[in-house]
Amino acid sequence: MNPILLSPFDISIAASLIILDAALSILLKLRLHRQIAIAAARMVVQLVAIGYVLRFIFTLNNPAATLLLILVMVLVAAREVAARPERRFKDYSNLVIGFVSVGFATFVTSILALTTAIRPQPWFDPHYAIPLAGIILGNVLNSASLSLDSFLGSVRRERQAIEARLSLGDSYREAIAPLVREAIRRGLLPIINQMSAAGIVTLPGIMTGQILAGLDPLEAVKYQILLMFLLSGGSGLSALAASYLAAWRLTDDRQRLRLDRLQ
Amino acid sequence: MATALLVKNLRSAFAGPFELNLGTGACAAITGPSGSGKSLFLRMIADLDPSEGKVWLNERERGSMPAPQWRRQATYVSAESGWWADRVIEHFDVNRRSEVAALAARLGLRADLLDAPVAQLSTGEKQRFSLVRALLPSPPVLLLDEPTGPLDEESVARVEALLRERKATGTSILLVTHDPNQAERLGDQRYRMVAGHLQTP
């Protein structure tokens, strides 16, 4: 079975639904019609652009170009991780923590999947490497930002407790351990929920996409299962990295709690 | 009297420079308005805040030992006590329960409070338990930040009696207090903190 290709006309029929939204907004005075129009236009432009970029990179078929695109994606994800927590470092630490944790988790899990499970020829074939890195990035970004948010929030709340332990001669590592543990937990919860709900509450996107593209459901399911495992591994790695990096950044050579480094 | 704690040119961007010479078994009491840097001074000595300058304990410079080891010898007790577990007893070494209970009793704390959730304790009870926590390992120097702030008169007397006893056995105390009478009762040396500087009255 071949995928059914869409013509611009098919899409413009669906676009009329956006007009329905806008009409609704005007009718009910939601004052959202401008935003709906802008968001829809942005979405179309962004997706068409990335479509051309991907096509370009695919024809280049150059590992350096593939790597560069993935690095740009990681950088954008790192910015998201850095921006979400309520508490931030005064310097660029948020961004560095986001970049390292997201990049590390994405590279480790993508390379593992490409070299052992999916095995395209060559393993860095952009047709596989880029979409895979993209899916993993989206999830890993989420867990890294949740972990970072949890850690930076709790460290200020628990300042008295942490410093009480330090004062009594506990090491920084001991004093901070419960907060790091909680932050990693927070980062792992979404993927656990996602796995439990998969197939019952939700039909995950990749599987649905592949079925629409004509793949046998069981083959699509296999891909989805592989992906879930990758995502859970990636979430764990990024939550771990984000939490430990933030904890490390908040101390110094005398094992102090350096809240003065936060905004 | 032999010098226990020696502070030379200790300073940060917010307070100092400080000089202090505290003898073994002596108590230096610091009074002064809120925000004048009294807590900062104690925190700098405990190495909880970054500072420049030097601090010695019995002729050993604090930089020569890991920070946790230093803090076990110059133990800071903050004005607002911090707790990291649910129950009071979980903040102590389980093998020393009877010693904890004995010290707690001397400060007028009921024995059943040991197993109570921290959240159920009053501010004054928490303050006294945090003092017990610091006194238990018998550090040679205590850095006490308003240890009797939230306490009633009877409890204040109990705390002071215990501190006097510790002084007699060689513990040196740096005491920050808002109560000038307490400074007079306990302090062998007396200072006043004004805008980040120590003054002798």
Structure description:
Chain A is an all-alpha fold. Chain A has two domains: 1-60, no CATH class; 63-261, no CATH class. Helices cover 77% and strands 0% of the residues of chain A. Chain A contains nine helices and no strands. Chain A has helices at 8-27, 33-60, 63-83, 93-118, 126-157, 159-167, 172-197, 205-212, 217-249. Chain A is globular. The termini of chain A are far apart. In chain A, 33% of the residues are buried. With 201 residues, chain B is an alpha/beta fold. Chain B has a single domain (3-83, 139-199), classed as Rossmann fold, CATH 3.40.50.300. Chain B has helices at residues 38-45, 67-73, 97-106, 123-135, 153-168, 180-186, and strands at residues 3-11, 18-23, 27-31, 52-57, 60-61, 74-77, 141-145, 172-176, 189-194, 197-199. A six-stranded mixed β-sheet of chain B has the order 6-7-8-3-9-10, with helices on both faces. In chain B, strand 1 (3-11) and strand 2 (18-23) form a beta hairpin. The longest helix of chain B is centred in the C-terminal third of the chain and has 16 residues, at 153-168. The radius of gyration of chain B is 16 Å and the shape is globular. Chain B starts with a strand and ends with a strand. The chains are: A mainly alpha (263), B alpha/beta (201). Chain A binds chain B through residues 158-171, 175, 178, 252, 254-258, and chain B through 46-50, 66-69, 71-72, 75-78, 80-84, 130, 133-134, 137.
In short:
The complex is a heterodimer of chains A (263) and B (201). Chain A has 263 residues and is mostly helical.
What is the beta-strand fraction of chain A? under 5%
Mean pLDDT of chain B: 94
How would you name the oligomeric state of the polypeptide chains in this document? heterodimer
For the largest beta-sheet of chain B, the strand count, sense and barrel status come to: 6 strands, mixed
Number of helices of chain B: 6
Domain tally of chain A? 2
Spatially, the strands of the biggest sheet of chain B line up as 6-7-8-3-9-10
Q: Topology as H/E string of chain B?
A: EEEHEEHEHHEHEHEE
User: Low-confidence spans of chain B: pLDDT under 50, at least 5 residues?
Assistant: none
Note the overall shape of chain A: globular
Instruction: Label the structural class of chain B.
Output: alpha/beta
